[in-house]
């Protein structure tokens, strides 16, 4: 039984947002009461979408009362809306009342938890949903105090409680056994039918599945995420006509929203915050947002300041060819001109929504939610019939022979010699290697170089500089990238930290320039390991130190758990400066133990986020080196590398239909 529950938890975590966890695992606030079979129905007096208050006593004449806790935003709850209406149709004439109650505190729902909906969980939003979905049952709001939901012990949405004529609880749990349709077991209907026939309910309690109740205690979590998102890096790149055409072509499997704006356009600036909200809502789905500034090139910095101040962390580009007709014709031949302008492109490039002038945020969200899907069963984006989309496929950098094995020296449980390590790498079909050392390896530096040469392996990387390598680099004519783990801790303002870090690195910048080597900052936590800060340091070095274009970044998935939720934005900021990307299985940062490495080092394919992260890398067009890692003292490096190669191969096959 325990293993079954564990597997079920894993499945739900894989398909739900971070906080949409298996309901029985959620934490509950003080006052939470578990309602048991035989207990009396707790009283309620709540406002409904009909602008009237509804009380438990209002349904005293009904033989059976079904109270279902549901909500607007949850994909599982939305999947059952039509079935609830059908139950009302089937049972109303038989003396059965069905009452819906929304248990959620609207201020406790994060924006990324709204990705399956166009509406939040406020009473006003509930009125819209009830009207549009044609609810045939009362829909009540308990989000202000949540006292009723606490008294019923609501675990999730939906959660059903069925009471007999005496208002004693006779059934609690799910509606049926399949939110995706075609259920085999109709638990709620079976309970109602039994009560109407004066029989015992066959199954009195079932587990619930759906979205965890958003208790008022989660308000701080909501605020914390807003503050975190406001710190996301913002960038603006200049594009030409060909790249603008690529944006309109939408050669991806995602729904793409494009907003055209300018700093001199008042309505544009007024609606920008709405696009920030919309992007944060849907970017966890098959969705992406692009803003296109039509400012003049001389105003690029001004446009970037506006985007930064407004926290627009999606893909931002500037296009100004001086020919407005090129812009109009490329993005949408039906665009009559004027700004702002917003369009939705289906995969393949068909415009499925367009708006000249300011958007109605609710209208745009509805158009997005209808197309990305409101339930797990509809979690897809339709491809344009007129222009079938093709999606980017893995480049040669993902082929086995081009992968870079990493952390195979210090973390190999077999503690191989340089010669044995080189043979292992060769036998695995790999053609280059990244080298990280410890004090015990100092005397082996040259043996490693010679062993690689003997096996035709490129000495790709030397991690953390040691002066004894300089003569060996000169002697053997190798050109490894130098990866630098910055333990330097700058202080002061952001600008002061950037300047101080750049100055701290100057000697290594000069040394690697002299040797003709690439020099890459290595993300390893802290201020100096944050992607946005690394980019700022690299840009400052390139701008202030002569001939320093050899300075860039190496990005490691296993040191980037804090980046998983906004990886696409962070990756795109780093993209122009990347020299290597090292892969790893990825999970939520909250369950990673940095000391024991529990959940930190996982085989590719065993995590929750690496598939989307790798898809982002491929979609970006990044063609640089890709690394796979060992990084566990208890593992034979050969086994660790082989498992990662196999895991990557399977993942690419799942994503793209072929392993390489």
From TrEMBL:
Entries under InterPro entries matching the protein: AhpC/TSA (IPR000866), PRX-like1 (IPR047262), Redoxin (IPR013740), Thioredoxin-like_sf (IPR036249), Thioredoxin_CS (IPR017937), Thioredoxin_domain (IPR013766), Xyl_isomerase-like_sf (IPR036237), Xyl_isomerase-like_TIM-brl (IPR013022)
Subcellular location: Cell envelope
Domain Thioredoxin intervals: 35-197, 225-373
Keywords annotated in UniProt: Cytochrome c-type biogenesis, Oxidoreductase, Peroxidase, Redox-active center, Signal
Enzyme category, top tier: oxidoreductase
A GO term for molecular function: peroxidase activity
EC number(s) given by UniProt: 1.11.1.15
Signal peptide residue numbers: 1-23
PROSITE patterns with a match to the protein in the record: THIOREDOXIN_1 (PS00194), THIOREDOXIN_2 (PS51352)
Coiled coil spans: none
Gene field: bcp_3
Top-level taxon in the UniProt lineage: Bacteria
One of the record's GO cellular component terms: cell envelope
A biological process term (GO) from this entry: cytochrome complex assembly
Stated name of the protein: Peroxiredoxin
Organism: Mariniblastus fucicola
């Amino acid at each position: 039984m325990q293993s079954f529950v564990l597997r079920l938890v894993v499945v739900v975590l894989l398909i739900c947002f971070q906080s949409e966890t298996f309901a029985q695992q959620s934490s509950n606030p003080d006052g939470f009461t578990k309602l048991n079979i035989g207990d009396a129905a707790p009283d309620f007096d709540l406002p409904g979408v009909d602008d009237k208050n509804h009380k438990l006593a209002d349904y005293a004449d009904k033989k059976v009362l079904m109270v279902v806790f549901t909500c607007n935003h949850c994909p599982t709850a939305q999947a059952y809306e039509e079935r609830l209406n059908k139950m009302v149709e089937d049972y109303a004439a038989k003396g059965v009342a069905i009452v819906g109650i929304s248990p959620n505190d609207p201020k406790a729902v994060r924006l990324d938890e709204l990705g399956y909906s166009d509406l939040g969980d406020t009473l006003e939003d509930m009125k819209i949903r009830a009207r549009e979905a044609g609810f045939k049952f009362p829909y009540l709001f308990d989000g202000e105090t949540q006292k009723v939901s606490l008294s019923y012990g609501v675990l999730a949405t939906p959660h059903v409680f069925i009471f007999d004529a005496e208002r004693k609880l006779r059934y609690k749990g799910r509606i049926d056994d399949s939110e995706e349709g075609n259920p085999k077991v109709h638990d709620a209907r079976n309970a109602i039918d039994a009560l109407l026939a004066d029989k015992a309910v066959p199954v009195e309690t079932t587990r619930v599945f759906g979205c965890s109740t958003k208790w008022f205690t989660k308000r701080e979590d909501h605020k914390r995420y807003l503050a975190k998102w406001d710190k996301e890096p913002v960038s603006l790149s200049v594009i030409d006509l060909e790249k603008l055409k690529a944006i309109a072509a939408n050669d991806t499997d995602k729904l793409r929203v494009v907003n055209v704006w300018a700093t001199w356009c008042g309505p544009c600036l007024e609606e920008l915050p709405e696009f920030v909200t919309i992007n944060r809502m849907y970017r966890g789905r098959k969705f992406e947002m692009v803003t296109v500034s039509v400012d003049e090139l001389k105003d690029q910095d001004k446009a970037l300041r506006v985007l930064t101040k407004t926290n627009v962390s999606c893909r931002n580009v500037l296009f100004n060819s001086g020919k407005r007709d090129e812009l109009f014709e490329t993005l949408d031949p039906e665009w009559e001109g004027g700004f702002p302008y917003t369009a939705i492109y289906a995969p393949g490039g068909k415009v499925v929504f367009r708006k000249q002038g300011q958007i109605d945020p609710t209208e745009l969200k509805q158009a997005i939610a209808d197309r990305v899907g409101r339930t797990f069963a509809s979690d897809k984006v339709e491809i344009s019939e007129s222009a079938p989309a093709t999606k980017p496929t893995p480049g040669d950098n993902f082929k086995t022979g081009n992968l870079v094995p990493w952390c195979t020296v210090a973390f190999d449980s077999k503690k191989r010699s340089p010669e044995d390590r080189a043979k292992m790498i060769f036998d695995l079909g790999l053609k280059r290697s990244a080298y990280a050392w410890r004090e015990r390896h100092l005397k082996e530096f040259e043996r490693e170089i010679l062993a690689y040469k003997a096996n035709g392996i490129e000495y790709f990387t030397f991690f953390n500089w040691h002066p004894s390598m300089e003569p060996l680099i000169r002697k053997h004519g190798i050109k490894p990238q130098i990866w630098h783990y910055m333990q330097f801790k700058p202080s002061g303002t952001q600008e002061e930290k950037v300047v101080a870090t750049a100055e701290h690195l100057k000697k290594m910048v000069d040394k690697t320039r002299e040797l003709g080597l690439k020099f890459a900052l290595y993300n390893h936590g802290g201020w100096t390991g944050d992607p946005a800060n690394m980019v700022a340091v690299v840009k400052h070095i390139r701008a202030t130190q002569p001939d320093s274009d050899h300075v860039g970044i190496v990005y490691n998935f296993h040191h980037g758990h804090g980046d998983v939720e906004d990886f696409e934005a962070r990756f795109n900021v780093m993209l122009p400066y990347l020299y290597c990307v090292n892969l790893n299985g990825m999970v939520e940062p909250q369950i990673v133990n940095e000391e024991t490495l529990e959940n930190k080092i996982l085989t590719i394919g065993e995590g929750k986020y690496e598939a989307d992260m790798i898809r982002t890398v491929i979609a970006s067009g990044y063609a640089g080196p890709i690394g796979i890692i060992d990084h566990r003292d208890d593992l034979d490096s050969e086994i660790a590398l082989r498992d990662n190669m196999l895991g990557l191969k399977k993942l690419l096959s799942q994503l793209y239909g072929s392993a390489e």
